[in-house]
Amino acid sequence: MMVTTHAAAALFLFGSPAALLAPQFAAPALVGALLGGIAPDLDLFVGTHRKTLHFPVYASLAGVLVAVVAALAPSAASVAAATFLLGAGLHAASDWFGASDELRPWERTSPRAVYLHPAKRWLKPLHVVRYDGAPEDFLLTLALSLPVAYLFGGPVRVVVGAGLLVAAAYTFFRRRVPDVFGV
Ligand SMILES: [Zn+2]
């Protein structure tokens, strides 16, 4: 799935409810979720993609624990840490439902969707979303973004709108990306 889908999912599922429950911590809740949805894919640049910063189990468990802490002792830091970890855990777990990390994921030649650290093995892609930038991936970004844009005005709407534009462009050009880079 596209990073915009992961970011929108984290905002919708974790950032928005936390922001509505504790409006005084709306900003840390939403920023934490946004960054958590994005952060795992930074391992595109360092280490092994879908492994080094993807923790489907550990980040999710840590997120649940920190969410309990945030509920008992709410603060900007605890709320942001909770939505960040939950968003990062969801990102890693949902990569399982997409395609592999290969350059042309629609060819389905790689069995590596995301690394399952506790089991020390890769999960096979489930292809519920056929590949990142597939039309259904864009629809997911759209469906998860619209409620967030509706609920929160101002800068949140700007960020979500920018994400939608990026997602639309990426979806439009996705199949041509490997050829453009000559790989
Ligand atoms: Zn990912």
Automatic annotation (TrEMBL):
The keyword Membrane applies. The chain crosses the membrane at residues 56-73, 148-173. Keywords: Membrane, Transmembrane, Transmembrane helix. This is Membrane-bound metal-dependent hydrolase.
